[in-house]
Amino acid sequence: MVISREQSMGMKGYAILLIMIHNFVDHILVMGNNEMAYSSKATAEFVASLHAHPSVWQFFSFVGWIGVALFLFVSGYGLTKKYGNGTMQTRRYITSHMTKLWALLAPVYILYVLVQLYLCGEPHNWQSVVTQLLFTINLLSYGDNGFVIEPGVYWFFGVILQFYLLFLILRRCRMGWLIAALAMAIATHYGFLYLADDDTMWWFRQNCIGWGAPFILGMIAARASWQPSRGQLAALLLISIPALFMCLTIKGMAPFTEVCTILFFGSLTLLVNLKPINAVGLISASIFVIHPFVRMVLYKVLEGSTLSVTIMVIIYLLLVAALSLLHYWVYRRLPRQK
């Protein structure tokens, strides 16, 4: 299956918009969601809010976390297309990807910590700082170390590194084995959903074992020969809308959330090419590392504000856009190992 660079950027664009708006409005609206552990209460509150006073921000608060699945799908697809089954230098592969992650994370994260300490006056657990910079924070027990989620979305760096390493094993698998691995990932998620307590589910979902389906689906798409027609894509888009809603609101369907997310946004991106979304996707990595910093500062500045949620979101998006463009300009000029 062929997905162009523009289409990949489109998926990244949708992903980062979902994630950064979700991470901002989720704190303001104080709504629960099913990102890490399924909550029947959160689901009921979301459905009730749609009937009482529907708002686009409620949608982002409850649903926006699914953008992570899009990032992992594009990563699995891109790695498979780039490396496939051919020869590769494992040491250079690992070094280059770790260097890229450190170059993205370290400068902004250190600034994040300093601002949190000295400007916002909030304590920061230094074990959290060290383990985050070493990409091992995901391995800590959530129940015993509440600070694990303190850095916000930066936990994703540990997950993507795990997938970079897992790819070294999966890239040699034939298509049948990849399909079996996809089924196993969904089945594992299904088992944890009903057997694990919330703390275990958090740990499970903060590591690659909880996000295997979209990454493996990306690898399968990269190897598949099927090239869907526009009619097939339109049908897939229409089918995926109710399917995704059911996955987000019915516990028994929850393990299929990431798959239906890929089907919906994948078919949408292949059908409609929106250049503004592609442009957002181009700088998505910079937006990803910048937006938690902007969010933290704005929460302090806007505390007690009577501004509407819409105005606050607009201010937030403008600041994120400006700083992300600056970060992207600097980051692209850093020397890097290919």
Number of strands: 0
Q: What distance separates the N and C termini?
A: 25 Å
Major sheet, described briefly?
none
SS class = mainly alpha
Specify the number of helices: 15
Could you characterize the architecture of this molecule?
Helices cover 71% and strands 0% of the residues. By secondary structure, the protein is mainly α. Helix 1 packs across helix 15 and helix 5 (90-118) runs parallel beside helix 14. The two termini are 25 Å apart. The model is unreliable at 145-149 (pLDDT under 50).
What is the secondary structure topology, with strand pairs?
Blueprint: H1 5-29, H2 40-52, H3 56-63, H4 67-83, H5 90-118, H6 126-133, H7 156-170, H8 175-195, H9 198-205, H10 212-223, H11 230-249, H12 257-271, H13 275-282, H14 284-301, H15 309-331
Helix pairs in contact: 1-3, 1-4, 1-12, 1-13, 1-14, 1-15, 4-7, 4-10, 4-12, 5-7, 5-14, 8-10, 11-12, 14-15
Task: Please summarize what this structure is.
This protein has 338 residues and is mainly alpha-helical. It is 71% helix and 0% strand.
Descriptors:
338 residues; 71% helix; mainly alpha; globular
